[in-house]
Structure formats: structure tokens, C-alpha cells
User: What shape does this take?
Amino acid sequence: MRHIILIAVTILCLGGCSSQDTITSPQEIVFPETNVKFQNHVLPLIRLTCGVGICHSSSSTIPLTNYTEVVSRVGLVIAKMPSESTLIQFMEGTLPHPGIIDYSYSENHKKGVRTWIMEGALNN
Assistant: This one.
């Protein structure tokens, strides 16, 4: 009986500890209407679209791999002012991005990043 319980617990743990929650595609990121989180929404989107290859990865000249790097880049994110933030301008195509952008952002992504900036661009 003890072995059966141990096996059952092991199976449940392995099933619950899988990497199914790992986001591997920008399309998997869905922003809520409010209370947008940098760690759950914005950073995964940036990592999967901007932070790939040599563009804005940790080894690039302009890395965007964490909160500090994103908000310390002058003008990229201006808290409570999404239209003035170059991140939004690049995403919406109103400001040309130097180099090649190989990703089209969904309306949900654009609105979500706008909301995060409007909510104060917090490290949440």
C-alpha cells in the first residue's frame, strides 16, 4: 500500500512539474485588459521578439533582457506616456526601427504594452 501511494504521488508531481507553462512563441502571450505584468507579459514578449539572435539578446550592444535594461534605455519606455515611448512607436511602426524587424505584433500585444506603460511601467 505504501508503494502505491508513493508511486501515485510521484506521478502527480511529475505531471504537475512539467514544462508545459514555458512560453515558446509570442502568440502564446495574451495580455489582460488591466494589471499587465512586466515579468509575465512584457518581458516574455520582448525576449521572444526583440531578444532573439544578435538583436537585443544579452550579448548584443543594446540588450533588453531584464527590467533595468528596458527602462534605462532613454526614451524606450516613458512611464504613463505610451505614445511617447519608442518601444510603442517601434511596435506600431510609427517610428522606423534601425535594422530588420522580423515580427508583427498583434493588436493585443500593442494594447498590452501600452497598458503596462500607462499603468506606470512597473517591475511587477
Remarks:
- The chain is about 40% helix and 0% strand.
- Residues 26-118 form one domain.
- The two ends are 45 Å apart (CA to CA).
- Residues 8 and 14 are 10 Å apart (CA to CA).
